[in-house]
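Researcher: I need the complex structure. Ligand is adenosine-5'-diphosphate. Inputs:
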Amino acid sequence: MDICTDYIDSSSDTSDPYPDFSLRQEGEAVLPESLELKVRQRTSELQQANERLRESAERFRAIFEGAAIGIDIFDTCGNFIEINQKLCDILGYTWAELEGHSCLDFTHPDDIQITLDCFQAILTGEVSSYCFEKRFINKQGEIVWTNLTVSPLPNAAKKINHFIAVIEDITPRKQTEESLQTSERKLKAFLDNIPDIAWLKDKKQKYIAVNEAFATAFGIKPEDFVGKTDWEICPPYIAEKFWYDTLDVMVSGKRKSFETKLVDSDLNTMWFESIKNPIYDSQGELIGTAGIARNITERKRIEEELKRSQEQYKALFEILPIGVCVTDTQGNILEANLASKQILGLSKEDCSQWNHQARQLQLLDPKAKVMETSQFTCVRALTENKIIKDRETLIVQPHGKSTWVSISAAPIPLSDCGVVVTYVDITDRKKAEHIKDEFLAITSHELRTPLTSLRGALGLLATGQLGILNEQGKKLLNFALADTERLTRLVKDILDLQSLKFSKNAIEQSNCQIDTLLDRAITAILPLADEARVKLSVTRVTGNIWADRDRILQVLTNLLENAIKFSPAESTIRVTAQEEQDRILFKVKDRGKGIPSDKIESIFAPFEQVDASDSRAYGGTGLGLAICRNIVEQHQGHIWVESTLGIGSTFYFTLPLGNRKLGVETME
Ligand code: ADP
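Model: Output:
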């Protein structure tokens, strides 16, 4: 690479590096003796000066070429005159590639203006040199950050035709700075994104950074915390607590959480939960702590309330006179109150025994049949995922103690949580019922024979074969006959209900044709309907049900009798049978007086009537629907009524399908 010396002396002839010296040599021959010495002396001085100049130029070249930083000399338009190897390396080009180019060709577009400003400031004498950070674009198209110092190179006439620039590659430092700034920005964004209060402290417990939430909580700008300790921003009692908590974390080197109670200026109590972490440098030296804190006042309040309500619930749970158990989804007992422990014979202290003890129990249904596990109320509530209510069950403990209970179970309305089971001890009621049933059975049996002979005798009297009675006598005899009839029906119904409840063979199921059943019921009831001037309409399916023919006939006729009894003349009673999945739904719909909503359920209990006068007015016993419910339920069916007062009632009951072929037919 050649050195252009114009910037050293622009008036020199570049073809002869030592012009003064050659002129002197030409004049030597004509100089007088006295001058010769002077000339020789002067020539020697000039030779020495030239030697020094040459040495200086070589030193400059050595420095220029060997410099560890980039140096270039360029004209006032930025055109390269001279570039050292280091700058070539920085830019990634050879001198041959750079020669003829301007430094502006390799300047980052955003830094061209500042470069031109720099030239201008030096040329106008505003500054003697110009230093700034400038970006070049290297041969790979990458940004090279440099620290650039530009100085003028005036010629002998003090005119600035050239500049010299010293260029330090600061890209690594810039990258480090950039990544530091990026990570600081990320840290800030991260901190500010945390809804909780967050901070960083050095190991002297001075704040390095806090997030927006922290600043907002204290009403101070985030930057105003930097360099401060808690002693400068909190009351002493709080600062002391924070100080020792943080010290604890730094000394133990472990992440710890703390709860702090604060009282604000309005004397409101606030609770904060903080988690503090030690921070270490790459050498494992502790450099500070990071912390995060959350206002848990509301949580504390809820916890307190929960604790109080749990204690109330526990106290209530324990003193409840009915047994209550909570099971998991597998039916394992999780909680049991005192009453349930007594009923189920569970150990009072050791709950680990409960499931074993529960498995030892024997459960019997009201007909004294041992229940399958799948029939247990809690198992049904779990598998059917619905509330199962009031199932009368006899619980027999291994040592023989037995308790009649009414069991209800309800799935806990959170997924996979199990069930709550309640046990109401009905042993006394069952005993009373048993006594009542026995009494009814005995008296009914005892009444049946004398009633039969009484009815026979009264019937004979009524024929007149034993003498003619006067009108008064006939009237009394008719009353006696009617009452005897009613008493006989009552005795028959009581015995029927007893047999349905206690006889194991009360129901005998077989395949029955639905249409035949309906026909027989209609035929039996038709005279009564005609007498009451009520019409019957039947819609039926042809097919079979799996049922006890006579018992279902009994249900149908009882419902039809009631419908006729309570229907106005000329109204129509509609009877339908329709298929529903695996069952048949029967409906008996009338336009009668209807049933009040509070009686909708109770009329299915024995001796229950909407109105006590019904029995006198319509001659019923109040046992018909109780018998119907018993019959239907023994067929695994359901019976219920829907009714609107003054509009009419519809009685429904379902029965399981038999093996049948279905068809639909309507008959008036
Ligand atoms: P009863 O022998 O008294 O009819 P049930 O058990 O058959 O006994 O009926 C109980 C009561 O239910 C009746 O006394 C009556 O009050 C009411 N009831 C039954 N069916 C109807 C109906 N279709 N319309 C209005 N009330 C009815």
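Model: Summary of the prediction. The first strand starts at residue 70 and ends at 75.
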